[in-house]
Design goal:
about 90 residues, alpha+beta, about 40% strand, elongated
Amino acid sequence: MSQFEEVTYISEFNVQPNGCIGVRKTTDVLKDGVVISSTYWRCVLQPSSTVDTEVLNEPYYANLAQTAWTPEVIAAYQAQVAAQQV
């Protein structure tokens, strides 16, 4: 009898020059240990003082976001957004 398994993991994580963080999660469906299907989910997190723990539910990535989002990065991003709204 075949055994199926579903595995979800963060497959891409990058910090862009403006401080935004791109996240891609992959969900693999395995049959007897071999990937037979993959689906992807992506989002971009904007610099803020809090980390979206629902998206970055792994402490490693949450810590990277906290490190990348210094007060200076957050202020620069907010200034960039405000300048674009004028």
